[in-house]
Design brief:
With 384 residues, the chain is α/β, with parallel strands linked by helices. Helices cover 30% and strands 23% of the residues. The protein contains 13 helices and 14 strands. The strands form two sheets. A nine-stranded mixed β-sheet has the order 10-9-8-7-11-6-12-14-13, with helices on both faces. Helix 9 links the parallel strand 7 and strand 8. The protein is elongated.
């Protein structure tokens, strides 16, 4: 690939623009585009919201708005930098390859190939067939990392799951009395809400709802919406006076229970109807061999509901089940400079645990951040 002097500069700018779509475009990718002519920026855009115009078309419109008299002359033989391969199929919007060709843009520099089978190199092929110079793979690693959720979702049809927990330096998520507010400081809690803004849904177990009565919303003023709340509640024990139920008319909520066709529990059936009257979607999932919600089946169903990402803020039991089922892609651990002690104080991952050290869940690619007085450790799960 021929790299010109300013190519990296313009692609970095496109990556920065793409980030503006964070939390607004799921399950579509964040994409940024920059149009340059003779070293001068003449148009820029990003994918602003799900169902809206893509970055390339927004950049072309920006050029037209800025250069009303000669925009067509400027676009001819210009270079467009785009973080993801331009789409070539009709979806909610027409193909971006079509807009690039129609406006006689002469060169396209792409960050990463789109993993969507509807695109997947086809966009590049169409552009080349129309005499357009295409350079691919510029800052590819950065572009893929920015859309790691999209790449995972489009390849697996399952949500990208981030398991998050806060603990003390001695590995406790609560005191022996069950008290847990607050373990970390304000900066860390702000960072959690940034993550809630970025991901499509948040999932907890029923014990967390019963013990903490949380809202599970996003408290950032600029958040486009609250995450979809998913409660794993095998036997529909969720209290009708909980904050989750009381706010379900305003915040999309799913309660997941175990379906048992052979032994119909009529009290459970009435509870289901009551939850549905409170605008809660009740999703029935088959039990696994241990009598728990089959999390892999749940992920498949949530993926079909366009839920591309989940922040798992479960308790220790749900955390172990999630790790054991293999649904977790990333772990975020907030560590506070405190020590609780106590044999009865809970740890982040409970369940039965693994019997041998070599069977432990392996982590890789660590990222360490300082958040006020706390540390954030972020790891990817090693998929074997």
């Amino acid at each position: 690939m021929l790299i010109l002097q300013d190519d990296k500069k313009w692609m970095k700018h496109a990556i920065k623009l793409a980030k503006r779509g964070l939390g607004k475009v799921n399950p579509n990718p964040m994409v940024g585009a920059v149009i340059v002519k003779d070293g001068v920026l003449i148009g820029e855009g990003w994918h602003e919201e799900y169902g809206g115009l893509h970055a390339e078309r927004n950049a072309i419109i920006d050029c037209k708005n800025c250069y009303k008299s000669n925009w067509d002359v400027l676009l001819k033989d210009a270079t467009i930098y785009v973080t993801l391969e331009p789409c070539c199929h009709y979806g909610k919007t027409p193909p971006c390859t079509e807009a690039i060709i129609q406006n006689s843009i002469g060169r396209v520099v792409i960050g990463a190939v789109d993993p969507n089978p509807l695109v997947g190199g086809k966009g590049i092929k169409i552009l080349k067939e129309n005499g357009i110079t295409v350079e691919n793979g510029l800052l590819e690693e950065e572009c893929i990392k920015q859309n790691e959720i999209f790449f995972h979702y489009i390849k697996t049809n399952k949500p990208y799951v981030v398991m998050k927990y806060a603990m003390t330096l001695d590995g406790k998520i609560s005191t022996y009395t069950g008290h847990s507010k607050w373990i970390t400081g304000e900066v860390s809690r702000q960072h959690v809400h940034d993550t809630r803004k970025r991901l499509k849904a948040i999932m907890v177990g029923i014990n967390t709802v019963i013990m903490d009565n949380p809202m599970l919303n996003c408290r950032l003023k600029d958040s486009p919406s609250d995450p979809i709340r998913i409660i794993c509640d095998s036997n529909l024990r969720i209290p009708l006076n909980s904050n989750i139920v009381k706010t379900a008319k305003n915040i999309s909520t799913i309660v997941v229970c175990i379906c048992d066709d052979d032994n119909q529990d009529y009290n459970k059936d009435e509870k289901k109807k009551e939850l549905e009257r409170n605008c809660i979607k009740v999703l029935e999932i088959k039990a696994n061999s241990k009598g728990q919600i089959d999390l892999n089946e749940l992920m498949m169903k949530l993926g079909k509901m366009n839920i591309d990402s989940i922040l798992l803020e479960g308790g220790s039991t749900l955390n172990f089940s999630a790790l054991q089922s293999g649904i977790v892609s990333k772990v975020q651990v907030y560590i506070a400079p405190k020590i609780f002690g106590g044999e009865a104080a809970k740890t982040p991952v409970g369940g039965e645990g693994v019997p041998f050290a070599y069977e432990g869940f392996k982590l890789e690619k660590p990222i360490i951040k300082m958040l006020g007085e706390d540390f954030l450790l972020e790891y990817k799960i090693v998929k074997e």
